[in-house]
């Protein structure tokens, strides 16, 4: 039998079960917040007593107790009270949350208490307490459910269950059968094996989502909310607190601001804004506004962190929404540049985008690149790099970078590395049995090579050895013999390079019998000689020419070039002499060293001579006059002139390079020698400026680069114009129109060329001298009756596009169309204007050819003196400078072509203000009322009278007051008149122009007699106001300066009004324009304009009426200012 619930105590402690009984809520330290690393390595049961889940009463206090055994701990344990997964309640301590900690030294047990003062609905949910101590930890969870407070029950609740009526002997005093009858038996439900957490979430309240997610291990709350949103559609519920809730979702671009608005039913209600369950505080980023019942939350400069769930809380009601942050498309602000490197160099492609932190995708020839040992990606702010540490020929290709709003591409060219000679081979002169060592060093350790003697490859043997260690290559010959003498050459594999040196064998001969022998020059023409007595030397190389000389005694050697003798002193060009040998040496050969050299040897026995021709060859000069002769969509034609100097060796061909304007990277276009002086460059980007340069190549090497060409831009002609149609045809003309081409390109459109020809002919005639910019054109001067074909070509910087040709020929003949007047909408009803305004009516019509327009007014021809009419081929204009009532009437316009005609009629009404009503009469007076009647005005202003305005005036004050406005009838009743007053009335008439200027005044008056009192009227004696004229203010004598206007004044009174006469020296002034006479309420003024000496004298003012006359006079002196007086001033 259930017991009724008792009111909860103010302070309620929840006792935990004994520690030896395990709880379902127990958990270890492995339950940590997602994204955080667990801090403890050992899980142990430290709780002696754990807090337990309770159901609290709203408004009451509840206390949770946890006890921890510290006997096995080295340090004091640390206790944390958490709500949900990560909200630390320690920072919320205050009036609502109170924490207490005690320690029992005997049992070494710590007791921790958490008290929630006056529980509210927001305290419901899942809680967790966690205790840690160095290497140990333990935690447990508990829940709080909040229910409403129960109503006050009876003091003695058992009184309600006392038994009444007869009962058995064994029946008790209380009867609870009423409760048993109403209670339904609960059926025991079998626990479900499979729990569908999504069904639980679907039927749960939003405030329980976090608790359920924590219970079932769901960590992605955002993903859970999105899935629930798709699973069900929440029907909006009527809210008591909200008149208008938040929208289900909002979307805003990154960097912009967004405003969330709700409307409350109570303008004084307080609201709280939450973001992902956390309350938002006002700041520069979050701005709260309150206008009446509207509450606004403004989020400035939205970032991706603001993509969250927001809610507005008013009391116990909430309004939820989600804010989604859209990232604007990322564009490329700095494009990729083409790169040309040699094998083994580092490659860096750099691109700059519009947004920091944006993701880019790198691709090569359509295949996406990933981060591996070969490719590295780097970014710094808005800059991104693709890095290739050591480039190889396999890396040649087109590289692309893609963003969400743009793309760019660049070419990578990798050239074989040029081999450099670090140490060349030196000539050797050795004796028999000595060791010969030829040694050279190149820049690449991996390069192999072969040794040659006099053009024959050297093979290793016991006496000849070849070694390769790192960059050094050696040829060692032991026990040198006479047959080892000759030219030795090292040729690296894969390179057009050779290093040569000579081995000279020094043979010692001993002659015991002295003898004389004529000198003899022995020239060896098998080495550097290309033909007889001619040596070719590459500019910059060293020439060493050894000449064997015989003769006894040893002859004297003399080298000459022209008349200049070469000395044996140190220098760039010198001669070295040894026994039986003369060496001619040129260090770093130059073009000036070329020429014929003479050698002469002499001794006592005779003389011998020989000539040697030295020819210096070099790389050619750079090509000249590099220019672009034509461009295409992604190509350009380049032309240049051959170099002026070919270096002494015929030019084999050319190498070309290009670069984007503003860039410093040149890209090689060909690796094989190109023989022609024109080249078509491909794979360019339309709309980008490029520059080109050319290298000349001969048998010696490559020239310096030519001067860069002028910048050029690859641009393709546009496609043909579209939808070429005929708009109009007349005798001798044809109007064409068309649409721009579908593909325009970066060059834009400069204009269009229109051409025509007779059908069947092949000669096209250009109709316009310069391109037209509009998409329409009228071709004139065409032969009437001929069939013509037309075509239109678009023109831009790249040239003309393909023509758009009309499919069918057009016959040049006027087309007769039925006339049709297009009357404007405002003229289809009565056209009203006020008197004096301008009338200007434009009425278009459609007809061909040469229509005839005619105007009639009221069926009669129009008077062109009163109305101006101008008619063209497309419209007619009716104008009136100043409208008058006579211009009102019906106007008929007819347009006629041959026997076809169209007519329209329009009515013009010129209106003005009406005249005053007539015959205004007071017809009856009763009580405090008066009845008025009148007749409409004679002039209604040429329009209907819309009403009347009636005003009254008391004869004593004569001030007018409005009685009625917009009265439609010609009669009315004036009420609420004042007793004892006499009234007169006036009436204004009204129409669409307004009230009449004048009013109709009643002929009689309305006297409101006093009721109940009779006053005997005394006979009125009219006072005689007549008097003769009398000046009350006289004229005063004046002295004025010549040239300055002056005035004299006086004042007069008299009745009837006197006549005023001004006189000068007793002569009446009259209507002299020099004088201006004024009379304002008896104040008389005579103005004299710029008086002179002649205007001085005596002035008299005389006033005359029927009862008499009066006069006053004064003297006016006009003086001229002297030069002395001006100087004083």
TrEMBL record:
GO terms for biological process: cell adhesion; sarcomere organization. Residues 1-41 are annotated as: Disordered. One of its GO terms (cellular component) is myosin filament. Residues 38-145, 236-331, 417-489, 1029-1117 form the Ig-like domain. GO terms for molecular function: actin binding. Keywords: Actin-binding, Cell adhesion, Immunoglobulin domain, Muscle protein, Phosphoprotein, Repeat, Thick filament. Residues 622-718, 720-815, 916-1011 form the Fibronectin type-III domain. It holds the Pfam family THB. InterPro entries: FN3_dom, FN3_sf, Ig-like_dom, Ig-like_dom_sf, Ig-like_fold, Ig_I-set, Ig_sub, Ig_sub2. Residues 1-15, 21-35 have a biased composition (Basic and acidic residues). The keyword Cell wall biogenesis/degradation does not apply. The keyword Membrane does not apply. Belongs to the immunoglobulin superfamily. MyBP family. This is Myosin binding protein C, fast type a. It comes from Cyprinus carpio.
């Amino acid at each position: 039998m259930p017991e009724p619930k008792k009111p909860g105590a103010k302070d309620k402690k929840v006792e935990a079960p004994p520690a030896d009984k395990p709880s379902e809520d127990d958990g270890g330290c492995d339950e940590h917040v997602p994204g955080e690393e667990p801090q403890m390595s050992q899980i142990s049961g430290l709780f002696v007593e754990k807090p337990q889940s309770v159901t609290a009463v709203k408004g009451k206090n509840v206390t949770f107790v946890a006890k921890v055994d510290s006997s096995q701990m080295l340090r004091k344990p640390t206790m944390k009270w958490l709500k949900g997964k990560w909200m630390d309640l320690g920072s919320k301590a205050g009036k609502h949350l109170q924490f207490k900690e005690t320690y029992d030294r005997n049992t070494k047990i710590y007791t921790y208490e958490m008290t929630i003062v006056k529980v509210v609905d927001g305290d419901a949910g899942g809680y967790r307490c966690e205790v840690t101590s160095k290497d140990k930890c333990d935690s447990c969870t508990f829940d709080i459910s909040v229910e409403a407070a129960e109503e006050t029950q009876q003091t003695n609740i058992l009184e309600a269950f006392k038994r009444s009526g007869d009962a058995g002997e064994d029946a008790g005093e209380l009867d609870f059968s009423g409760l048993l009858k109403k209670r339904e038996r609960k059926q025991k439900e079998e626990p479900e094996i499979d729990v569908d957490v999504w069904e639980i979430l679907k039927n749960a309240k939003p405030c329980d989502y976090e608790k359920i997610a924590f219970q079932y291990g769901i960590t992605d709350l955002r993903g859970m909310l999105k899935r629930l949103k798709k699973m069900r559609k929440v029907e909006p519920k009527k809210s008591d607190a909200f008149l208008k809730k938040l929208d289900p979702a909002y979307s805003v671009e990154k960097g912009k601001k967004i405003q969330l608005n709700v409307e409350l039913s109570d303008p004084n209600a307080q609201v709280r804004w939450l973001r992902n369950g956390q309350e938002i505080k006002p700041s520069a980023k979050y701005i709260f506004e309150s206008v009446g019942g509207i509450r606004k939350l403004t989020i400035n400069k939205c970032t991706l962190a603001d993509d969250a769930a927001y809610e507005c809380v008013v009391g116990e009601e909430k309004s939820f929404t989600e804010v989604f942050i859209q990232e604007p498309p990322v564009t490329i602000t700095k494009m990729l540049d083409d790169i040309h490197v040699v094998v083994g160099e580092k490659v860096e492609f750099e691109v700059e985008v519009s947004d920091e932190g944006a993701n880019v995708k790198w691709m090569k020839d359509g295949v996406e690149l990933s981060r591996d040992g070969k490719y590295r990606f780097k970014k710094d702010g808005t800059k991104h790099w693709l890095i290739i540490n050591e480039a190889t020929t396999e890396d040649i290709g087109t590289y692309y970078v893609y963003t969400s709003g743009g793309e760019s591409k660049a070419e990578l060219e990798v050239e074989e590395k040029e081999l450099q000679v670090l140490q060349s081979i030196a000539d050797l002169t050795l004796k028999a049995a000595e060791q010969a060592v030829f040694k050279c060093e190149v820049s690449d350790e991996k390069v192999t090579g072969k040794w040659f003697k006099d053009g024959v490859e050297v093979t290793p043997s016991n006496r000849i050895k070849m070694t390769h260690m790192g960059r050094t290559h050696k040829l060692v010959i032991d026990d040198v013999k006479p047959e080892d003498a000759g030219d030795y050459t090292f040729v690296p594999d894969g390179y057009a390079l050779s290093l040569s040196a000579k081995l000279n064998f020094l043979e010692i001969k001993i002659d015991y019998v002295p003898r004389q022998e004529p000198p003899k020059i022995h020239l060896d023409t098998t080495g550097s000689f290309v033909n007889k007595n001619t040596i070719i030397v590459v500019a910059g190389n060293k020439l060493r020419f050894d000449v064997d000389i015989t003769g006894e005694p040893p002859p004297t050697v003399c080298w000459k070039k022209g008349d200049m003798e070469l000395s044996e002193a140190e220098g760039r060009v010198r001669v070295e002499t040894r026994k039986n040998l003369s060496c001619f040496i040129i260090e770093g050969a130059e073009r000036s060293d070329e020429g014929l050299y003479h050698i002469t040897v002499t001794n006592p026995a005779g003389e011998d001579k020989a000539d040697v021709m030295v020819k210096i060859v070099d790389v050619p000069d750079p090509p000249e006059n590099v220019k672009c002769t034509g461009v295409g969509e992604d190509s350009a034609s380049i032309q240049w002139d051959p170099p002026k100097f070919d270096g002494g060796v015929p030019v084999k061909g050319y190498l070309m390079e290009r670069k984007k304007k503003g860039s410093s990277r040149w890209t090689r276009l060909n690796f094989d020698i190109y023989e022609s002086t024109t080249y078509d460059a491909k794979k360019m980007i339309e709309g980008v400026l490029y520059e080109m340069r050319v290298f000349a190549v001969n048998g010696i090497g490559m020239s310096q680069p030519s001067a860069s060409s002028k910048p050029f831009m690859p641009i393709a002609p546009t496609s043909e114009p579209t939808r070429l149609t005929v708009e109009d045809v007349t005798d001798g003309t044809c109007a064409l129109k068309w649409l721009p081409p579908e593909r325009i390109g970066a060059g834009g459109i400069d204009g269009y060329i229109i051409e025509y020809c007779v059908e069947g002919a092949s000669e096209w005639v250009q109709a316009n001298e310069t391109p037209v910019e509009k998409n329409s054109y009228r071709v004139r001067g065409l032969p009437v009756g001929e069939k013509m074909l037309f075509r239109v070509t678009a023109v831009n910087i790249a040239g003309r596009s393909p023509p758009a040709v009309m499919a069918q020929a057009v016959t040049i003949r006027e087309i007769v169309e039925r006339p049709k007047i297009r009357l404007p909408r405002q003229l289809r009803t009565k056209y009203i204007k006020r008197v004096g305004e301008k009338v200007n009516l434009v009425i278009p019509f459609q007809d061909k050819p040469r229509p005839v327009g005619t105007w009639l007014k009221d069926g009669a021809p129009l008077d062109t003196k009163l109305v101006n009419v101008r008619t063209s081929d497309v419209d007619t204009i009716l104008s009136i400078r100043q409208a008058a009532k006579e211009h009102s009437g019906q106007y008929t316009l007819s347009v006629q072509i041959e026997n076809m005609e169209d007519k329209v009629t329009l009515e013009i009404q010129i209106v003005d203000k009406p005249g005053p009503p007539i015959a205004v009469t007071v017809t009856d007076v009763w009580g405090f009322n008066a009845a008025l009647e009148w007749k409409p005005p004679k002039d209604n202003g040429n329009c209907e009278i819309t009403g009347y305005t009636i005003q009254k005036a008391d004869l004593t004050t004569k001030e007018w007051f409005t009685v009625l406005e917009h009265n439609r009838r010609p009669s009315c009743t004036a009420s609420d008149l004042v007793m004892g007053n006499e009234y007169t009335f006036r009436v204004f008439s009204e129409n669409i122009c307004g009230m009449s200027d004048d009013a109709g005044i009643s002929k009689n008056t309305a006297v409101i007699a006093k009721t109940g009192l009779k006053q005997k009227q005394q006979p009125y004696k009219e006072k005689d106001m007549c008097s003769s004229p009398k000046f009350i203010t006289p004229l005063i004598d004046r002295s004025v300066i010549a040239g300055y206007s002056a005035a004299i004044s006086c004042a007069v009174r008299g009745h009837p009004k006197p006549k005023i006469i001004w006189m000068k020296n007793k002569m009446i002034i009259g209507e002299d324009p020099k004088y201006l006479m004024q009379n304002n309420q008896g104040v008389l003024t005579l103005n004299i304009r710029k008086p002179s000496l002649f205007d001085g004298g005596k002035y008299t003012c005389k006033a005359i009426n029927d009862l008499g006359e009066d006069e006053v006079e004064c003297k006016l002196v006009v003086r001229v200012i002297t030069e002395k007086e001006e100087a004083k001033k």
